[in-house]
Amino acid sequence: MGKVYLVGAGPGAPDLLTLRAAEILERAELVFHDALVHPQTLALAARARKILVGKRSGRFQNRRAAQSRNRF
Questions:
Q1: Secondary structure E strands in the chain
Q2: 3-class SS at 52?
Q3: With the C-alpha atoms ordered 60, 42, 18, 4, is the resulting torsion angle positive or negative?
Q4: What is the DSSP letter of 28?
Q5: Which among 49, 51, 48 has a CA at the least distance from the CA of 26?
Q6: Which domains does the chain carry?
Q7: How much of the chain is in helix, strand and coil states, percent to nearest 5?
Q8: Contact between 46 and 65 (Cβ < 8 Å)
Q9: Which tens digit of pLDDT belongs to each residue from 19-55?
């Protein structure tokens, strides 16, 4: 059985993540994220499958993203 970690991105700057958060992202197999996560932060999870789950004001989530999220 796998583990689930909740990693907060803090104020958004990738260099402000804790070392532990960066290590968890580097080992991750799957990352659920919203549109506010900085691209450099997501880049830490290079081998992970990334699933966008957030919404932005005035924009609807696309159907495929909703289906992917519902599978997990």
A1: 30-33, 49-52
A2: strand
A3: positive
A4: -
A5: 48
A6: 14-71 (3.40.1010.10)
A7: 35, 15, 50
A8: no
A9: 999 999 999 999 999 888 999 999 999 999 999 998 7
> How large is the average pLDDT for residues 54-60?
68
The Cα 72–Cα 61 span in angstroms is 17
Residue 1 has pLDDT above 70, yes or no: yes
Token pair in block for residue 59: 């924009």
- The maximal CA–CA distance of the chain, rounded, in angstroms, is 38
Distance (Å, whole) CA 57 – CA 11? 19
Alpha-carbon distance 44 to 29, whole Å? Answer: 12
Rounded CA separation 42/67 (Å): 21
Q: Report, as residue numbers or ranges, the catalytic residues.
A: 34, 55
The predicted pLDDT at position 62 comes to 61
